[in-house]
């Protein structure tokens, strides 16, 4: 049951990737999307390809299927970002670009990872969580600079946050079972808190309809 929660979160993220792939294919543009977010998620899934074999996830075939689908999705999104890079001029500030967040995530993972060993596969596990948490920041920053968030983009980001919340529930459940991954839980809590105001606006949009205006946290 616990492993199912972990995998379910990534299936939700894969569904979000499909939504974004459809948007890019339909509009032949990445306007309003952060290439750094997609690059960060690609790095995260590649890291997962390395450490997943060392975990209990190998006990279920659904984990192999999810990882394969997620890798294909991340590669597809990154390729389309490269293909349509010329369709956007807006990018996040240097401290949110992937060349800044990736080293920062690795440093955090080195100092804050499960286990007592200074050097272990758990560093890559922590890197994945921290990189995913930081990876959404460029997209949130970019949406704040736009007058209105395009519907499919808003659904993509909303589903990503839902996926992280599901994984946060997984870490919490593991804690109550006596397996403490507080560093990884902390990464997902930070991710959820940083996107909390956006989720409030997205939930209102789903309930009442209308546009989603994230700049200055106002919606009409």
Map the helices and strands:
Elements: H1 2-27, H2 35-51, H3 61-83, H4 98-111, H5 122-135, H6 137-144, H7 151-176, H8 182-194, H9 196-208
Helix pairs in contact: 1-3, 1-7, 2-3, 2-5, 4-5, 5-8, 7-8
Give a short overview.
It is built from 9 helices and no strands. By secondary structure, it is an all-alpha fold. The longest helix is centred in the N-terminal third of the chain and has 26 residues.
Overview of the molecule:
With 220 residues, this protein is mainly alpha-helical. 41% of the residues are buried. The chain has helices at 2-27, 35-51, 61-83, 98-111, 122-135, 137-144, 151-176, 182-194, 196-208. The chain contains nine helices and no strands.
Rg, Cα atoms, Å: 17 Å
| Percent in strands | under 5%
The biggest sheet, with number of strands, parallel, antiparallel or mixed sense and barrel status, is: none
Number of DSSP strands?
A: 0
Q: What is the rounded distance between the termini?
A: 40 Å
Helicity range: over 70%
Oligomeric grouping of the chains: single chain
* Form type: globular
What structural category arises from helix and sheet content?
mainly alpha
Mean pLDDT: 86
Poorly predicted runs of 5 or more residues: none
Helix and strand element order: HHHHHHHHH
Q: Please give the count of helices.
A: 9
